[in-house]
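Re: [ENG-882] Designed sequences occasionally contain unexpected residues at chain ends

Forwarding the minimal case from QA. Structure tokens:
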């Protein structure tokens, strides 16, 4: 039977990346996506912007929406201080199965909790079921039409505090127009656009960083 792209990506990691070395896993996936098959990881160029936002935020509790194969999960987790935690949500069980193996290969599994399900169901359970108070940083990289409803849901569930950072991938390509309009016009956010390129291409894309003002 045919393998899937995520399975082939995992195969490259297990064949070429050094176990326990997150940078090696990231480098291997970027090389696979440049030389073999494009995949919708945030990638190396936007990944550097992600890294800088993570390090400057120095977060204790991070939420990632959209694990996919775990590329940005590994990128973020590798930069977290020892007691910090990353909760990453994934809807597709096949992707989740691959991501768990990528995360473990990188050796960051102790900082990561991968939860399978839909954001609309899981976000309201974050406090009671996952012991979360508020998120210091949220990385949005899941279905683009869910960025806005999930942001409103996080507000309603009291998961954002003054100073919480939302970092959204793909605000240009594929684009998240309703989300962008909201965070750029709402008095409750201070937004900043980081211009970049769609992963592994020359097409314009970028990340939008939005600080919740409370
Ligand atoms: O469509 C794109 N991304 C969609 C990404 C979707 C991923 O997020 C998961 N998810 C859905 N809901 C949840 C939650 F949170 F509910 F659990 C998690 C999906 O199962 C999938 O793995 C995309 C497309 C392009 N592109 O160039 O076409 C480039 C990119 O960087 C992209 O991110
Ligand atoms: Mg993306």
């Amino acid at each position: 039977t045919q393998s899937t792209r995520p399975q082939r990506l995992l195969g490259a990691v297990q064949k070429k990346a050094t176990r326990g070395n997150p940078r090696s896993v990231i480098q291997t996936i970027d090389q696979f996506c440049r030389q073999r098959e494009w995949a919708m990881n945030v990638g190396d160029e936007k990944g550097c912007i992600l890294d800088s936002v993570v390090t400057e935020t120095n977060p204790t509790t991070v939420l990632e929406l959209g694990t996919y194969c775990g590329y940005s999960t590994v990128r973020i987790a590798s930069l977290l201080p020892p007691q910090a935690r990353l909760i990453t949500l994934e809807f597709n069980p096949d992707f989740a199965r691959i991501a768990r193996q990528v995360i473990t290969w990188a050796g960051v599994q102790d900082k990561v909790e991968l939860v399978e399900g839909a954001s609309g169901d899981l976000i309201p359970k974050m406090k009671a079921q996952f012991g979360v108070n508020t998120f210091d940083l949220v990385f949005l990289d899941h279905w683009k039409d869910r960025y806005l409803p999930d942001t409103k849901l996080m507000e309603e569930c009291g998961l954002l505090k003054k100073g919480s950072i939302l970092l959204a991938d793909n605000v240009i390509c594929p684009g998240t127009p309703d989300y962008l309009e909201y965070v750029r016009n709402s008095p409750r956010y201070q937004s900043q656009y980081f211009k970049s390129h769609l992963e592994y291409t020359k097409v314009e894309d970028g990340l939008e960083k939005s600080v919740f003002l409370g």
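QA comment: On inspection the terminal residues look reasonable. The chain has a mean pLDDT of 97. Proposing we downgrade this to a documentation issue.
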